[in-house]
Amino acid sequence: MFRGREATAALGPAPARARRARRLSSARLKTALRMTRRELLTSFAAIPLLSRLARSAPTASVAIGECRSYRPAEVLAAMTALCDQIGGLGRLVANKTVTLKVNLTGSPSQRIHGLAPGRTHYTHPQAVMAICHLLDNAGARRIRIVEGAFGSSGPLEDFLLDSGWNLRALTSTAKNIEFENTNTLGKGREYHRVKVPGGGLIFPAWDLNHSYVDTDVFVSMAKLKNHATCGVTLSMKNCFGITPASIYGDDAGVDGPNESPTFGRLSSCHDGSRGPSKSSPQELDPSSPRQPGYRMPRITAELASARRIDLALIDGIETVAGGEGPWIESGLRPVKPGVMLLGTNPVATDTVATAVMGYNPRAVRGEAPFRDCDNTLLLAESLGVGTADLNQIEVAGVPIARARFPFES
């Protein structure tokens, strides 16, 4: 999964790196939970405004489909129906470059109950093969599969092989599939700066790998999961991973990017204990709360505003509840909701997905699932990305009531 497998030994065993990441995350989380009164007031101040914005935010229909297993024919049939229910893919992707951001959080060496990552916390390769086949049939000129591979600056293909993916089968589903690890500059000549409309909440702009700008259609292919910090992780939170670790990682360069990053983004993004490389835009307000439950929902919302998601696809066939990955030390459990969701507006899609998980999408901090964080859905709504009001969203296919699978234990 690194640039040459011999590099793995130099970085130390994967379990050791994972234990170090867990220790860092646990210590920072304990610090984060101590919010001051001022920080709480800052979080709640925008609530009246959010309710007014819900009525004017963009919306789009969201399709829900049942799918009980990852058998290829069943996944393809369910995904075909979803695409038909939102008006087809041809109008979106014909003769265009499509960038598909998958969710491969954490190291592929980590397992939950010994299960393959695709059955728990990773996007499942069978779902990726199905959507690539449908994108190709709809006329997509090129399909680029991307991810900021954890602790890696090497080819994404190596990371996928380590994760158990059959690349020969995947590349046979479409005429032109390519791969890019977006943790670094990769195949691009320079980073591309995307500004946050309205000025931003934490950062005014972000520097990204070329793949997120050199494209016509951006697809976020997420997993239906809880998140220890943000409550839920869906199509928008999946795009937290578009930030290159070379600039925003724990071992990012000070003055400029480090093109060989080996860690995640705890320091720059989660707790703000360091800034990104000085070559990139710095924080708007360094005195703002350092609490991850304040920062991460805002960063997620502003990324969804700066790099708009054109198609949100959420895999909930099999997944995990109680957290986002195997580093969560308690309460994590494999579940089988047996659903998939698809929509052209990420806020609307994530809102419906949150309801399918048994939660109130408009819950405020302190209410499940946003017990220790602000609500990303409402923040994205406030930025004009989309509506988080179920009353404004048309649901096609399976009704929410029938698809509902409570994630609370």
Summarize the structure in words.
The protein is of the alpha/beta class. It has one domain (61-403). The chain is built from 16 helices and 14 strands. The longest helix has 19 residues, at 14-32. The radius of gyration is 19 Å and the shape is globular. It starts with 6 loop residues before the first helix and ends in a 6-residue tail after the last helix.
Short description:
The chain has helices spanning 7-11, 14-32, 37-44, 47-53, 72-85, 90-93, 125-137, 156-162, 167-171, 235-238, 245-248, 266-270, 292-306, 346-356, 376-382, 400-403, and strands at residues 62-66, 97-101, 142-147, 177-181, 192-195, 205-208, 217-223, 225-227, 231-233, 311-316, 319-321, 333-335, 339-343, 395-397. The chain is of the alpha/beta class and 409 residues long.
Major beta sheet summary: 8 strands, mixed
How would you write the strand order of the largest sheet? Answer: 4-3-2-7-10-13-1-14
Total number of strands: 14
Task: State the helical fraction.
Answer: 25-40%
Q: Overall pLDDT, averaged?
A: 90
How many separate helices?
16
Rg is 19 Å
Keywords:
16 helices; globular; 409 residues; disordered N terminus; 14 strands; two-stranded antiparallel ribbon; 8-stranded mixed beta sheet; single chain; alpha/beta
Topology:
Blueprint: H1 7-11, H2 14-32, H3 37-44, H4 47-53, E1 62-66, H5 72-85, H6 90-93, E2 97-101, H7 125-137, E3 142-147, H8 156-162, H9 167-171, E4 177-181, E5 192-195, E6 205-208, E7 217-223, E8 225-227, E9 231-233, H10 235-238, H11 245-248, H12 266-270, H13 292-306, E10 311-316, E11 319-321, E12 333-335, E13 339-343, H14 346-356, H15 376-382, E14 395-397, H16 400-403
Parallel strand pairs: 1-14, 2-3, 2-7, 3-4, 7-10
Antiparallel strand pairs: 1-13, 5-6, 8-9, 10-13, 11-12
Helix pairs in contact: 4-15, 5-7, 13-15
